Amino acid sequence: MSNSGRGLAVTTLRSQFLLCGLLGVIWSYTALPSFRLTLPAHNIASRIIAGERFKPEVLPQMLSQMEAAPRPDIMQSEYYRAYAVVGQYTSEVAAQDNSSGLDRELSGAESRLRAALSVTPSDAFLWLLLYSVETARNGFDPAYVGLVEKSYIAGPHEGWIALRRNRLALAVFALLNDITQKAVVTEFSELVDSDFIDVAASNLTTIGWEHRAPLLAALEQADVASRESLARRLSRDGFKVSIPGVDRDDRLWRR
Question: In the chain, fewer beta carbons within 10 Å around the N or the C end?
Answer without folding.
Answer: N
